[in-house]
Specification:
alpha/beta; six-stranded mixed β-sheet
Length: 562
């Protein structure tokens, strides 16, 4: 349950700390005092969409934190899914800080999370009913979601949606193939030309680089051979002159004789001997190079022609031999697929038909689950409405079969007849504001019996009702609070009288600024507050007596029932 709420710099609330309790928690106060702001703050800390306009004027940020206790298994499971280990004592602290520049800081048990992660956890903690729910109730597109929620058929729905997605993908592939088949002949011509051109080019990996290297040699062969010959002459001698090898050989011979007189020259002698051998190897290598040099001017023309062909191929099919060969491989594969298109088309069609059968089976299963749930749902909602002073209500659920779509093959919407003898009609056509509030409360109560959310919030559930009906709503909210925490914002004394914990929201002005205060009130102050609600501008002895009677009636109502 929601144990503690701290609000800082939200709208006209500078600072507020509210300790909530089990049972029915009621918030009352003058219009504009800030009751809806508290609901906005709770929505914010649960990760719902909010605006920087929520930040109090003159402040750089707004901050809300909420402490929960005794969290259930569903909440713990959701925490583990986002990588947070639940506290052993069952507490959960969530915080959201909203900055004027739009930045958000969100934390769960001190660990930073995203807004979407916060929202995922928030939806397992609190269910908020507000005026938007009444609008959704008028939108028939939402009715199917109420039935699915009541049926708790998430696994059946997930099975259908997976089958639906598989079918749509198979259908897309088949249709795409059919649409492209008209261009088959043109595509075959193009692919055939491309594969034959690449195949004729006889591409070999590394050939282009080798050709560039060979062309460079041939283009500079004359200069290269002259340089090598010059180097060889310097080493081996030319035109009767001794070369470097002869000089080193003479030096080696002289030093070997000198060793007879001084062996300290041994190292130098050995080094020159090694140099002599190395120079001989160099001469041998240079001679081999000159002897094997094959310089044919006609070869250069062939290389230029081959390079031109390769560069033309590269421009069309890839920048390297590897890319061209990959293109060739893919083109051959595509050509083969087109060539055998009839077989492929039949295969794709067979897959689509198979996926459609699986989808239809799942759709039928989902429809049956909804049909069974609808009957029970309608019965329970009618029972709730009878208690809420709508005994003649006829609540009907229509389920029509449509073409399979994202949510199945069902179109579901609610019809009601509030008076005997009238045909059930769409809610949007005949339901008043008060009737909508009661129908929504009835639906919420029925749905609440099937979920594990521990805290329910009703924001102005009393719209359009008064008197005996309002008292019945108070009784119903009290009943709901027996096994879960309920927070209710109300303008009606008949509902506020049933509170286990009553909070007064008031507004004050100080130093040209507006402030909202939240105060937990006990019996005497509750009598005054209910008297204000009943009596208007001024409380009278009569309105105070009526307020006290309402509180005493609410206190004794369930005692008398037992």
């Amino acid at each position: 349950m929601l144990q503690n709420l701290k609000i800082n710099n939200i709208a006209i609330i500078k600072e507020a700390v509210i300790d909530f309790n089990n049972g029915l928690n009621v918030l009352t106060g003058e219009t504009g005092a800030g009751k809806s702001i508290i609901i906005d703050a709770i929505n914010a800390v649960l990760g719902e969409r909010t605006s920087r306009e929520l930040i109090r004027t003159g402040s750089d940020f707004a901050e809300v934190s909420a402490l929960f206790s005794d969290i259930n298994a569903s909440v713990k499971s959701a925490l583990i899914e986002i990588g947070i280990t639940p506290e052993e004592d069952g507490t959960l602290l969530i915080l959201r800080k909203i900055f004027a520049d739009g930045k958000n800081i969100c934390k769960i048990n001190g660990q930073s999370v995203t807004v979407s992660m916060l929202k995922k956890i928030g939806r397992t903690l609190i269910n908020i009913h507000g005026q938007l729910d009444n609008q959704n109730l008028l939108n028939e597109d939402y009715h199917i979601f109420y039935i699915d929620s009541f049926a708790q058929n998430d696994s059946v729905k997930d099975e259908y949606q997976a089958a639906f997605n598989d079918f749509k993908e198979a259908e897309r592939k088949y249709k795409s193939f059919i649409e492209n088949e008209s261009e088959k002949a043109r595509k075959i011509d193009i692919l055939t030309y491309q594969t034959e051109e690449i195949e004729a080019a006889d591409i070999k990996i590394g050939e282009y680089a080798d050709l560039i290297k060979r062309r460079n040699f041939l283009q500079n062969a004359e200069t290269l051979l002259e340089l090598v010959s010059s180097a060889l002459g310097s080493l081996d001698g030319q035109e009767g002159e001794n070369g470097a090898v002869s000089g080193v050989s003479f030096a080696v011979s002289a030093l070997q004789k000198a060793l007879d007189y001084d062996d300290s020259l041994k190292a130098v002698s050995e080094t020159l001997t090694d140099i002599s051998y190395s120079l001989s190897d160099c001469i041998s290598t240079l001679n081999d190079f000159l002897f094997s040099a094959d310089v044919d001017p006609r070869e250069l023309d062939g290389i230029e022609e081959r390079l031109s062909l390769l560069e033309s191929i590269f421009k069309k099919y890839g920048e390297t031999e590897e890319e061209v060969l990959k293109y060739f491989e893919n083109a051959q594969k595509e050509l083969e697929e087109i060539t055998f298109s009839d077989q492929i088309k039949e295969k794709l069609k067979a897959v689509a038909v198979e996926k459609q059968i699986i989808m239809q089976t799942a759709a039928n299963k989902l429809s049956e689950a909804r049909k069974a749930a609808s009957a029970r749902f309608a019965e329970k909602v009618a029972e709730e409405l009878a208690f809420l002073e709508m005994p003649s209500i006829v609540f009907k659920i229509v389920q029509n079969k449509i073409e399979c779509a994202e949510n199945g093959q069902d179109e579901i919407y609610f019809l009601i007849s509030a008076n005997i003898g009238e045909e059930p009609k769409a809610l949007s056509k005949i339901a008043s504001g008060g009737e909508l509030s009661r129908i929504m409360l009835a639906i919420k109560n029925v749905l609440a019996s099937n979920d594990e959310i521990q805290t329910l919030i009703f924001d102005e559930i009393d719209t359009g009702v008064s008197g005996r009906t309002a008292q019945k709503i108070g009784i119903k909210l009290k009943e709901v609070s027996f096994d879960r925490q309920v927070l209710c914002v109300t303008h009606l004394a008949q509902i506020a009288a049933f509170a286990d914990s009553h909070y007064l929201i008031s507004k004050r002005e100080s130093e040209n600024k507006t402030f909202t205060d939240v105060k937990h009130i006990e019996y005497d102050e509750r009598v005054s507050e209910l008297s204000r609600i009943i009596g208007g501008i001024e409380s009278t002895d009569i309105s105070k007596q009526a307020a006290a009677e309402l509180i005493d009636y609410a206190k004794n109502y369930f005692l008398d029932k037992n």
